[in-house]
Amino acid sequence: xxxxxxxxxxxxxxxxxAIIVAVVSIRRYHEQRSSGESxxxxxxxxxxxDAPGGRSVQDGVTNPRxxxxxxxxxxxxxxxxxxxxxxxxxxxxxxxxxxxxxPESSTSRLLRLRSRLAKSANPFGKALFNILTKDAxxxxxxxxxxxxxxxADVGAEASAQLIEELRxxxxxxxxxxxxxxxxxxxxxxxxxxxIDKDRALRxxxxxAPKPSVIMMVGVxxxxxxxxxxxxxxxxxxxxxxxxxxxxxxxxxxxxxQLETWGNKVSVPVVRSDRDGADPASVAFExxxxxxxxxxxxxxxxxxxxxxxxxxxxxxxGKIRRVTxxxxxxxxxxxxxxxxxxxxxxxxxxxxxxxxxxTGIVLSKMDGSAKGxxxxxxxxxxxxxxxxxxxxxxxxxxxxxxxEAFVDGILAQG
Length: 413
Hints:
Layout: H1 3-35, H2 43-47, H3 76-79, H4 91-100, H5 106-132, H6 139-151, H7 156-168, H8 170-174, H9 178-193, E1 212-217, H10 224-237, E2 242-247, H11 254-264, E3 269-270, H12 279-292, E4 297-302, H13 310-323, E5 329-337, H14 342-354, E6 359-363, H15 373-381, E7 385-389, E8 397-399, H16 402-409
Helix pairs in contact: 5-6, 5-16, 6-7, 7-9, 9-16, 10-11, 12-13, 14-15
Family: Belongs to the GTP-binding SRP family. FtsY subfamily.
Subcellular location: Cell membrane; Cytoplasm
GO cellular component, one term: cytoplasm
């Protein structure tokens, strides 16, 4: 057979085979389209992180624009909803991001947090109630009452005062009606908490100066920077304009953390471009920015301080003095970790002496059996607890409600 003829037959066979493969591929593609299946991604789609559903071959990370928003940064109500299906248009992600930027109102969050406050404060109150409703109280019972109060961080002085009043009250020794005992305990705890004390933030009042300046102070690990960010959200929910100053220049991530909080509610953050910059100069620039912007509130976050570092405590005074060259500091809020108990009291005293504090923010009250710190810190310093943080959510910060707290202590559940 002629060689040219053989070559021609082979070439013709290859061409025919290629045509058959192409026809089959096209038919399969159209069948997938008609059945609702998505065609398998091509190599180019996998290598392009901007393609819908694509991955970067280089780092294997899914396109971040198409990832669902993390539940950790969503408002609790939004996070509890079923996760929506991403449709590739970006509309769902945009809606979730918009929801994240809308802080919960102060009234709504207070109602929502009351039940958590009751749960966190309940353990020692329930133990107290169980003892005081016994038919006859012995010395051992009174000692147990004292132990319960001390373990709940009510403090030695406040515990002794409460026990003395209970022992001398005829309703305890002569009354076995549980409701009467509960009402007795309620009234005495409210006295210890000084229910008439003014707990309102100056910035929330109608006659507040503009800007109303709040300094946030506290040792490392109490959640101070997080609390500053949550406080900004609370003011935004009250339709106030806010500026934040990142005067914690010694912790590398502090300014970034504060800026992240600010971005979520469109609050500008004044910060230094370098770590270790003079905190007072940052506070000064933040004060000027707040005045220029006609802001309602300026929140200044300061570095976490160790109570035995006198030079660092002096620096807090310097930050305040420099800030007040432009505006008056209305509030100095000390952030305390509720789980630290009496160690937190030692911190509070040092800060009170160093700079003077106008209020306490108790963070990490969720699940804590040490709710008595509310009583002891107020009794020792004469400074009210103004805010409490009861969870990880961005809106889990609310004004402290003394009556709700006491009712939570005495709740039976």
